[in-house]
């Protein structure tokens, strides 16, 4: 018992842990919606008073006792027996609230689970609308229909009172709504090829917050404010909003779809507040600028996004049209809603639902995952609530659920493994599909993971969240995962799920085509996090308005002339200063010690815990006999080795982009990187003759083909380079993060082992 509680206290760090465990102020991706005070962790607050924990143990143990007794004994420290009963359940509710957020592990010490039976009074009631024969045009009779039906609004205030997450999110949404209240309506801004997508998503974000806040208060000021926003986006406000015949920019249909969704939510959620005139105005605007263009898109070649587009476009466009149709079904008698539902649902099933490939990877990029899954989740949820079925959207692809696994593993210790394009601003787009998927696919760890994130607080979470969830997402979670589909082969390896300072390395191979033209020529690319900082990182999107940026993914595409998309702009091997072959088809191999984290947020990595991933990336290059690249963790996941075996007829470069300040030793074979007050040492092992680290700015070579317009600058980024002439080499670069308190003598120097001979024990 003592060991666990000490661990939660956050003061017994692993020997070389560098700072606060888990949530600290400087956190990047894994950060709470409302960060605790500087340098204090919630774990300290709740972990130190052992007495409080004993009380919680007694109460929660009473509620969850029968479960807890079957869980691992090392994590079951409550053992208060099954006192059971209603009284215990209601005190569990108050304890749950008392303990607060980020506290699940202390609360139950069980692996993730949904446990509705013992937590009945903390759960959603069953939806009274259970049609025996669901049909897309047979909608529930009460409003709202979309995502948040009446019976949930009735229950929500109670759940908020007993669930700390719902409580915190509710407060944040109210705060956000108040902030938006004081702003001018969203101003029309045509952003070239990106259209008015930001405008659409910002309007949608505001409408969700206004409508939510109204329904929680009955204060009509929120309805009035929502109306001002709708009027503005209909072109009936005080400032102009786009051309009269096409205000929602149907040529870039994502914009149209997101506006349609915003109007659908306003219409449906605030239905009882609108006068008949207002209702008819909202409908007429939505039909003219959203649904009618939607029919054109869905029945002519204009709708290119319907044809084999397994990516965010298909999800977002079909979802917006579906929400709009569901909102007005029955009120509008033209038949357009019925017509569209007959087109959007089968099309999304045949395309959007396939954007998760069989290993769970989202076929576009880690950032486009947000847009695509938000569309998929909104559409599935709206169909479920409005009509009682998702018509297969959630399960036609038996591997769709794995996209939750993808998202967890593509999230590094500081931020995403954000290869390829990053997409436009997110506004109404979040990762909260994880909360819906957690519930729908019975993967509570998705819910537990997402509820800790900064973007969890928004109206959808309030209705998707299953408050009977308990446990900790990291409890039993493997530190490594390998994604093997040939399209996106990649590896994710880390030293902890709950330490912002953890080591995280991710590397990809995969194809250079078939990725909705959001990828880079980046076979072999990697990111590295350690000590709370990203040492090897991505440059992200180029300017989407650059000519031919999205033209195609053939070898001679202008897209591959922009530095951020070229191979030289990636953290990989460059041959002859030339782009990779777009026809690359690498093969990979990997293994892992299979280490899983336990229930504690402080994880002491066993010394023999390791993982490695190797790829034959020869096919990605011209003018080579062979190129192989491997990455592995060493020394209990405190060091990383990247090894390249290259036989090339042309000159090569090893390249890595970093925000760090780089200082190269006189020998030229080691470099010291400094960033955010931390240090990373890089050393070449058995360096080939003449191999030396050099640096350059992140800019194109003067000899590169000229792009249609100049590149975006990459200020602050240094490229760390090893240049070598044609030849046959084994290049080994050892990454030693300077963990606080770890003496130099504790770093290991691994033997040289050829990639083909790597195994879990080959470097012991
Ligand atoms: C939601 O948050 C608002 C603002 O903090 C608060 O006034 C309201 O009481 C909360 N709702 C519930 C049901 O607690
Ligand atoms: C919503 O409020 C939270 C808490 O104040 C804040 O961190 C967040 O940035 C706000 N979100 C938006 C979109 O304004
Ligand atoms: C708002 O009004 C509805 C309908 O009259 C009512 O059921 C609900 O309890 C009210 N909510 C609040 C927060 O007053
Ligand atoms: C905006 O004005 C047009 C033209 O009067 C009208 O047809 C439409 O219904 C109005 N829409 C809204 C949302 O006010
Ligand atoms: C979509 O893909 C299928 C299978 O690859 C193919 O048969 C079909 O022709 C494609 N449709 C379009 C419109 O490209
Ligand atoms: C540099 O830092 C920015 C901001 O955190 C980040 O977005 C970018 O990916 C980093 N670049 C590199 C090369 O690490
Ligand atoms: C691909 O795009 C480039 C311009 O970026 C163009 O020159 C080329 O013809 C296109 N190829 C195909 C097959 O469309
Ligand atoms: C791999 O290991 C075996 C057995 O130790 C050895 O015979 C072989 O030469 C090694 N292969 C390479 C490529 O080093």
List the keywords:
32% helix, binds 2-acetamido-2-deoxy-beta-D-glucopyranose, alpha+beta, 19 strands, globular, Glycosyltransferase, 764 residues, five-stranded antiparallel sheet, Beta-galactosidase, Chain A, domain 5, disordered N terminus, eight-stranded antiparallel sheet
**Strand order, sheet with most strands:** 9-10-11-12-19-16-15-14
CATH class descriptor name of one domain: Mainly Beta
Overall pLDDT score: 88
Assign a percent range to the helix content: 25-40%
Which class best fits the helix and strand makeup? alpha+beta
- Uncertain regions spanning at least 5 consecutive residues: 1-89, 104-109
CATH topology of one domain: Beta-galactosidase, Chain A, domain 5
The bound ligands are: 2-acetamido-2-deoxy-beta-D-glucopyranose
For the record, give the distance between the C-alpha atoms at the N and C termini, rounded to a whole number.
Answer: 33 Å
The oligomerization state is single chain
Number of strands: 19
Overall shape: it is: globular
CATH architecture of one domain: Distorted Sandwich
Please describe the biggest sheet, giving its number of strands, its sense, and whether it closes into a barrel: 8 strands, antiparallel
Number of helices: 18
Taken as a percent bin, the fraction of beta residues is 5-15%
Question: Any idea what the radius of gyration is?
Answer: 27 Å
